[in-house]
């Protein structure tokens, strides 16, 4: 029984971690920016979704359409905010040291967190209807929310979609070229700034989607982005910064580490994920899926 | 290539800081308390700044701030040892021991990985502390009043004593950091930042240099945490949360790498700004902080201290 619970919780938590982390790793892989503001984009996704759902339900429209609303609000919010930030701030700072860019995105994180507070106020938003909509199914005699299983589906769709896009579409392949060598790609006529803008926008959309998917399960309050960002960091660092298969493996490692802890030794819940990260880094300094890089003299 | 800032005349600025500390003694008590906590935290920011000289950004310096604070807190509240003559050395020692152990692992890492891994270890401690019910979980716990080398000041005189203690220890910390920066191991931090491989070709181990700077920063931060705990009479896991560490990085960045007193002074500026900003616009404090940070990165990449340095030449 406990085993089934661990398996399901682990799966669910891994899927959620993947959704939260994949945008982060995509942005790092292409742009070499470790984006702390990712947590703020997650929060914005959750807030916009909560507001949109609030409007939708008060208009008395059919309940099933709410899911379309969730997806749409996340897409629009993520794309608009991401593009805006990229155009207005980041574009002016490309070429800075990676560590400086971390600080830039940290500053953006602080600014956006307060912008969220000023826009939506400090009280909580609750939109539980989509979570309750599907009811639950039973595994043995363990009831399980169908919504949680749908999040797993969403993560799989997001992962496969991203893989398809990066490997099978023209823009995606150009993006991989930029990852491999920015300068050569630019010399070959790839519009690197356009690719950057697009990557950043897609990364923020992914963060916003994760936020929107989580909104019905939580109280949407100020500060929800703070914890998310460090969890996402742990996941991408375990897998190797910038690697999408790495994000999958990192999410599974971290997700199951937490699920096992919650059921076996709950006092180590938060500790578990970082412990896994520290152990992985001690053995593979640059993460499980990192490419070897030569030292430059 | 810009000339690296040297520390030949930095003693002068430590003297200026000492003077300011003495002036602070006569300021209203709220202002003096602000200076006191700013000095304690500034010592941690100084630790971050030292690592920045080697091009390394520690996004988890709150770890040692917290270790120092909890070392003092545990000894005072749980073991009944309440004299600063034992508490502060214990804070420094605890930070040093953990720093030496973690330094073995962390000195292998550079750039973003150094930032990430320092963050990870600080969050491990956070994860442990919030689940430690006997230590008050997220609330932390209070610390009883301390004695000073056997002397127990009465209620009214306590703030004077803790202010004086903080001032003296922070000034000593600045002088210590200065002595370190002027030593061979400290001077070579610039070389680690500029070109590590050439440094190893010349027969020096960058790894050892990074190990040493990490340990030195750990001790300074542990002391800062200990002082902060004594000053505020309270410790909680927030001390090792990543946003606290982020603030230390912000201050080190704001201050620049040019002087050992710059982080302490920059921390005071920050606390002052925070006091007024929270008064005027409580929900926009982070917005102001973030905007200031962006402005510094874009306009003053070498920190506020570069203004002072420019005025001097």
Report on the structure:
The complex is a heterodimer of chains A (297) and B (313). Chain A is mostly helical. Helix content of chain A is 73%, strand content 3%. Chain A has a domain at 21-224. Chain A has 12 helices and 2 strands. In chain A, helix 2 (38-58) packs across helix 9 (192-214) and helix 6 (146-168) packs across helix 7 (170-180). The longest helix of chain B has 27 residues, at 206-232. In chain B, 72% of the residues lie in helices and 1% in strands. Chain B has one domain (14-241). The model of chain B has no long low-confidence stretch (mean pLDDT 84). In chain B, helix 2 (29-53) runs antiparallel to helix 10 (206-232), helix 3 crosses helix 10 (206-232) and helix 11 (242-255) crosses helix 12. The interface between A and B is large, with 47 and 44 residues.
Most extensive interface: A-B, 47 and 44 residues
The stretches of 5 or more residues of chain A where confidence is low (pLDDT under 50) are none
Total strands of chain B: the figure is 2
- Gross morphology of chain B is globular
How many strands, which pairing sense, and closed or not: the largest β-sheet of chain B? Answer: 2 strands, antiparallel
What's the average pLDDT of chain B? 84
| Radius of gyration of chain A, in angstroms, nearest whole number | 19 Å
Main sheet: strand order of chain B: 1-2
Rg of chain B, alpha carbons: 19 Å
User: What string, H for helix and E for strand, traces the elements of chain A in order?
Assistant: HHHHHEEHHHHHHH
Which key terms come to mind for this protein?
heterodimer; A: mainly alpha; 12 helices; B: 313 residues; mainly alpha; two-stranded antiparallel sheet; 14 helices
In short:
The complex is a heterodimer of chains A (297) and B (313). Chain A contains twelve helices and two strands; from the N terminus they run H-H-H-H-H-E-E-H-H-H-H-H-H-H.
């Amino acid at each position: 029984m406990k085993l089934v619970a661990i398996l399901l919780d682990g799966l669910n938590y891994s899927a959620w971690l993947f959704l939260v982390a994949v945008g982060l790793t995509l942005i790092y892989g292409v742009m070499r920016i470790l984006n702390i503001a990712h947590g703020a984009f997650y929060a914005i996704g959750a807030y916009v979704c909560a507001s949109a759902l609030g409007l939708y339900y008060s208009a008395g429209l059919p309940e099933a359409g709410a899911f379309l609303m969730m997806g749409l609000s996340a897409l629009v919010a993520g794309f608009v905010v991401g593009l805006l930030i990229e155009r207005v701030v980041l574009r002016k700072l490309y070429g800075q040291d990676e560590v400086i860019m971390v600080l830039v995105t940290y500053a953006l994180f602080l600014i956006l967190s307060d912008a969220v507070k000023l826009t939506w106020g400090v009280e909580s938003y609750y939109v539980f209807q989509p979570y309750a909509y599907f009811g639950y199914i039973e595994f043995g005699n363990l009831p399980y929310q169908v919504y949680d299983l749908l999040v797993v589906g969403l993560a799989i769709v997001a992962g496969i979609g991203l893989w398809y896009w990066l490997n099978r579409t023209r823009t995606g392949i150009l993006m991989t070229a930029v990852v491999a060598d920015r300068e050569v790609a630019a010399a070959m006529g790839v519009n690197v700034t356009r690719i950057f803008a697009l990557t950043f926008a897609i990364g923020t959309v992914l963060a916003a989607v994760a936020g929107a998917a989580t909104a019905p399960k939580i109280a949407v309050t100020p500060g929800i982005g703070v914890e998310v960002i460090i969890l996402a960091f742990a996941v991408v660092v375990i897998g190797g910064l910038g690697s999408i298969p790495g994000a999958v493996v990192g999410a599974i490692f971290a997700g199951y580490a937490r699920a096992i802890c919650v059921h076996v030794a709950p006092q180590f819940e938060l500790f578990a994920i970082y412990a896994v990260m520290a152990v992985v880094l001690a053995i593979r300094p640059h993460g499980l899926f990192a490419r070897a890089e030569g030292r430059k003299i | 290539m810009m000339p690296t800032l040297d520390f030949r005349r930095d003693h002068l600025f430590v003297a200026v800081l000492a003077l300011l500390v003495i002036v602070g003694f006569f300021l209203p008590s709220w202002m003096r308390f602000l200076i006191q906590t700013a000095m304690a935290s500034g010592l941690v920011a100084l630790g971050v700044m030292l690592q920045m000289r080697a091009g390394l950004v520690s996004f988890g310096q709150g770890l040692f701030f917290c270790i120092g604070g909890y070392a003092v807190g545990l000894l005072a509240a749980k073991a009944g040892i309440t004299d600063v003559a034992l508490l502060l050395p214990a804070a420094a020692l605890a930070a040093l021991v953990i720093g030496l152990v973690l330094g073995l692992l962390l000195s292998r890492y550079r750039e973003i990985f150094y930032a990430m891994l320092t963050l990870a270890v600080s969050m491990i401690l956070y994860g442990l502390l919030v689940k430690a019910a006997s230590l008050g979980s997220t609330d932390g716990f209070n610390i009883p009043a301390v004695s000073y080398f056997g002397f127990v000041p009465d209620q009214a005189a306590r703030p004077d004593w803790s202010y004086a203690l903080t001032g003296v220890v922070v000034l000593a910390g600045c002088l210590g950091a200065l002595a370190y920066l002027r030593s061979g191991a400290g001077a070579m931090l610039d070389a680690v930042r500029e070109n590590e491989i050439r440094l190893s070709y010349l027969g020096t181990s960058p790894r050892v240099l990074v190990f040493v700077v990490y340990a030195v920063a750990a001790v300074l931060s542990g002391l800062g945490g200990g002082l902060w705990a004594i000053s505020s009479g309270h410790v909680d896991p927030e001390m090792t949360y990543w946003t606290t560490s982020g603030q230390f990085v912000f201050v080190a960045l704001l201050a620049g790498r040019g002087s050992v007193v710059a982080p302490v002074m920059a921390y005071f500026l920050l606390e002052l700004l925070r006091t007024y900003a929270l008064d005027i616009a409580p929900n926009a404090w982070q917005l102001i902080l973030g905007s200031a940070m962006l402005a510094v990165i874009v306009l003053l990449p070498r920190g506020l201290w570069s203004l002072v340095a420019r005025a001097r030449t």
